[in-house]
Amino acid sequence: MMSRADRTVLSEWWWTVDRLLLGSLLVLMMVGIVLCLAASPPVAARLGIADPFHFVDRQVMFLIPAIFVLFGTSFLQPRTIRRICVVVFAVFLVLLFATLVLGPEVKGARRWLNLAGVTVQPSEFLKPAFVVLAAWLFSESGKRPEMPAQLLAIALLGSVLLPLVMQPDFGQTTLVCLVWGALFFLAGLRWIWMVGLAGAGASGLLIAYKFVPHVTKRIDRFLDPASGDTYQVDTALESFRHGGWLGQGPGEGTVKRILPDGHTDFVFAVAAEEFGIILCLILLALFAFIILRSLNRALKEQDPFSRFAATGLAMLFGLQASINMAVNVHLMPAKGMTLPFISYGGSSLISLAFGMGMLLALSRSRPGAAAMAALSEPMQPPKSGVLATPVEIPHAEAA
Amino acid sequence: MTPSFSIPAPLAKAGRLLGRAGAATGRVLGRMGGVAGLFLLDLLWRMVRAVGMAFYGILRWIVLRIYRLCRWFVMRAIGLVLFSYHASIFIVRGLFGLDRVDQETVARARLKLIILAFSLVFVAIAGRLTILALTSDPNGTRGGGSEAVASARPDIVDRNGDVIAIDVRSPSLFAEPKRLIDPDETLEGLLKVLPDLDVAEVRARLNSGKGFAWLKREITPAQQRAIYRLGFPGIGFVRENRRIYPDGPTFSHVLGNVNVDNQGIAGLEKYVDNRGLAELHLAGLATDRQQEPVALAMDSRVQHALRDELLKARDKFKAKAAMGLVTNVRTGEVVSMVSLPDFDPNQSGDPRDNAHLNRLTTGVFEMGSTFKSLSFAMALDSGKVTLGSSFDARGALSFGRFAIHDFHAEGRVLSVPEIYIYSSNVGTAKMVLSLGVEAHKAFLRKMGQLDRLRTELPESAEPIVPRRWGEVNSATIAFGHGIAVAPLQAVMAVNSMVNGGYLIPPTFMKRSEEEAMQVATRVLKPETSDKMRYLLRLNVEKGSGKSANVPGYNVGAKTGTAEKVVNGRYAHNKLLTSFTAVFPMEKPQYLLLVMLDEPQPTPETHGYATSGWNAAPTAGKIVERIAPMLNVAPRQTPLNSDQMLRDIGQKVADRR
């Protein structure tokens, strides 16, 4: 094992990174593969793909780069993260606009781009970068009130919302808005503003309900199941009931054969049918652990940027997971939201690994880093060599 | 707290006043009566005062206690409210960061709120999951089990309870082509066990790549075991119900048959489905349900005997088809019904095949002289014609270019019974025409000969009735030409002539006489029925039905020979012979109809092919065989038609 005395990059990473969080994420990925084995063969059969494990193969194929991204990102320093995010944000914002023109229309929406044979969903990669940038702007607004950081944050939101609404992708829009609102809230938004924002959100939803037919349908169906076709949700609920506490056993599920999107949006229901609701509760506990632990670490964080970014990333992850699970158990109207690391999807897997890698990087224990940053950053940005070993600083101060 | 006995001032004052008043009373009493009364009064007063003070003390103690308790509670409640108010303000300000001390504190407080919100969401999802688990039904199946593929049917039994149709569960072979490893090898193995498989079709099915494909329905258990031992993956069995008819073709037309999914497609099987079984099947409830057997009016012993004799007769006279029908004249029950050629309902055949035609209900025929009975019944029932009336049967009856001749012309004036036993066409036509065309039409409609007869059998045929019905039509219809009806329909009418005048719709289901009477309509006077029975019996004694005179059973009968229409003309050598026999004549119970389609003359019949030479002896043999089965006791003394004639007069007199 590595010694605490080692001062190599790897050793420092090992002793400062949140190993429990990292472990939970890896467990989640493994569970994702197992559930993909259960949920995707019927979908492959329905789509007429000869190989029943087509989706499993692709998921494993994407998992390898995803793990590299996860580990690689977790080595980064907060400032590097910020810089990378600016680049990523710029690139994928351009791609996001490109989907509106170049993207093929799938089920009435243009969300995907075909880049060199790989189908990419730019909004997936844009999300974590957007959250980091918004967190930076909000943290700056506290530190340097003279900078119009909040206005910039509003502009940032606008630049992302415009293409998302045009795609249209209401799931991602909601997610982005919620995380952005939460960050604004954390940054000390006045209550009167908060009411205003909530009002704007509600009216936005109302407008969507009024003028976008499929949003109308989904909400109507949730409120009054008799008003329309609730086949997907009914089937999902039947999966849970059929599974019971202990499930039917691996490969023994039958409802999954008729459950639409069983490998993506409704993988949770398939998990319940085959492995039982006890596994669902364990999965829920795993998600809860990851989210609450990340938020808890953010609470203890000294540096405002790290705290905001970690909170934002944890919320992005947590909202997506809880909305997906809530939809699966019919606590919410149906919404196209995947279960992080569990649902099938290459873009989403790598983007999640990127986001969670940043979260790991930001939640690394850096005692005194905030004070250091507060003192040193505005005056003269220290060379990266100095900040590369942040653990030494408190010792130096103490001495 | 000890009770206090101190007296409050107002009460003491009142006491003193009372005491003074008591003393005054005492003085008055003393003055009036003595010291003893005064002493007693004083004692009473003291006791009252002591009790009152004790009560007062206890009351005061209780009130005080309650007051102090209430005060304590109120103070605590106020304290609690104040405390929670302060606490909530503290919590809200803390959590929402209202104090705005500095950004970091605010952010921390609000982050805690977010953590709280997430925790609540997780608890809600966990709660919902628990509810779903508690209401789960892991054993519930979707889309029903595979057992529902072929549905169960009720057994069908004859009138004595003998099974004539039954369900047997047998395995069916299917493949899951997707799971096959090597379709060709599988096919090879299957062919060893089932050599009669259609190779090309099964190969196509095995290579279809589908999730499910039938290979062979209804295989034997031995074949199932053999295929099971082959050990191929992707091959499976479903147990299905298969319909078995133990009597083979005996009941073919009556029972009809079922398709491969065990649904009735013809005959009474279809009727059973239409009674609600089809709905049960759709709902998936008919599976393996113990269902009440359907009891028919048919008698399988009679059916066997009838079919046996008809087969012999068909072979002997080289007839194209032979038909037989036995009905109970009092209940309308069809006891036996055979139409040859027939088919084996156990084998699936082509329903367009000639053998699948039930000639007795689905075929319509010009019944020939059998129909004359109707004409006689009409004439006698009208009252204008009696057994003593006579009609001129000399020569032919001509209508323009048509001329009606008699087959065995007597060339004289014939009485009504003579017309009947010589089967005179001219006499019958004249008799009917004397009553008028409209009356004839109305009578035939009343007897149900002009409308389609509906029974439990789904197959039925509309009679062929002349569109323009003039005198010439009535004249020919009088002796059974120019109108074509289903034989069962004609039998229903003949039944009414011998059962006392009731038209009873025929049924294949068991029915008692009382039940029959509820659906019966009176169409003839009872004495008409008596006269018809006399005529029928007379015809056996002296007329064309002699060869059916089975000793002991007192048969009454009418022959019928109709010429078939070939290329729009009546062909003299293509006959449809029929014979209607009723027994026992003294109190008719059963009617037997035998029909032969195009019987050929044989050396024994001296070149004749008319009814009296083929249908009549066949009917005689049948009566001989079936009468004992039907519990008709043979009589030692033959019934004399003259005696019957005398009885009619007596009966008429009795009824008056």
What's this model, at a glance?
Chain A has 399 residues and is an all-alpha fold. Chain A has helices at 9-16, 19-46, 54-74, 78-102, 122-143, 149-166, 170-186, 191-211, 213-223, 231-243, 267-275, 277-300, 304-328, 346-362, 369-379, 384-387, 392-398, and strands at 113-115, 118-120. The A-B interface holds A 45, 142, 182, 185-188, 191, 237-238, 240-248, 254-255, 258, 272, 276-278, 280-281, 284, 287-288, 291-292, 295-296, 298-299, 304, 307-308, 311, 315, 318, 322, 325-326, 329-331 and B 96-98, 100, 103-104, 106-108, 110-112, 114-115, 118-119, 121-122, 124-126, 128-130, 132-133, 135-138, 140-142, 178, 211.
Using brief descriptors, characterize the structure shown.
heterodimer; A: 399 residues; mainly alpha; 70% helix; globular; disordered C terminus; B: 656 residues; alpha+beta; five-stranded mixed sheet; five-stranded antiparallel sheet; 19 helices; elongated
